[in-house]
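Consider the following assembly input.
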Amino acid sequence: MNVRPKYKTKQKEILLSYLESVPGVHFTANDVCCHFKSQGAEIGQSTVYRQLESLVDEGIINKYVIDPNSPACFEYVAREDHEQEGVCFHCKCEKCGKLIHLHCEELEEVRKHLNKDHGFKVDIIRTVFYGICEDCAAEA
Amino acid sequence: MNVRPKYKTKQKEILLSYLESVPGVHFTANDVCCHFKSQGAEIGQSTVYRQLESLVDEGIINKYVIDPNSPACFEYVAREDHEQEGVCFHCKCEKCGKLIHLHCEELEEVRKHLNKDHGFKVDIIRTVFYGICEDCAAEA
DNA sequence: CTAAGTGCAAAATGTTTGCATACTT
DNA sequence: AAGTATGCAAACATTTTGCACTTAG
């Protein structure tokens, strides 16, 4: 999409270090703004939006769309999850919000299938399966 | 989630009969407005939104949320399709924005696989594969 | 010095709502 | 008559953008 950040700025740094401190938590762009506002270390909201977008592109955070009328959710994905490079799919529970990471051969197949038979190159980082997780299904 | 329409109005009637004429086609609320505007048979946009919402609740059409910043997509699902549970999967091109819908046996398999082997019930309506479509991949 | 990032306020977008009017039953 | 639906315009909320300014390399 875009060429991405090249300069290391104070804003990006503090944003990132904050995100690293809340792995697995999901938050909105506005949450981030408020957090920094209350810390006195403000970051302009355009910057927050722009940085979050960058981070999504870089695969450092994930973005979740629950409903077009509520704000988008983001979530920091711990580094280990990236590094094991065994391409990782994500399932997001719509009920409890849990994020499940799957390293699964069958899903790998699907990706190949979409590529070969439909000419569609799936972007795994961005793609999220929404649904209901085992636990939530059980208690329902 | 609401108590729904009780009166049969002209607007609802022509809206429905239009929808029935385009099964499997994706459209936005705005598309509907424009369609009727060009037909001279206008329906107010609030009415369009309200009726579409009703129809979603009634299970007559499906609503797809691709991205919070692009309009929601709707799709009339023919009665037979409901029965064969052949809801379709969506692929969204990150480059040109195209939305591709797939009725694909293999994807159906994945869904079953996730359910059976991972206990995860995929919500097809909300799940979107992001990636690069054939055309965009070609011209790159 | 140049390219990139920031922040503000303004625009854009898609959707919802208040309210007076019109239609269904 | 009573209860709904309609349509307009205004309101909303989130996200994006234009632009002048600052900062990193």
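The longest strand of chain A covers residues 89-93. Ask yourself how this observation constrains the way the partners meet.
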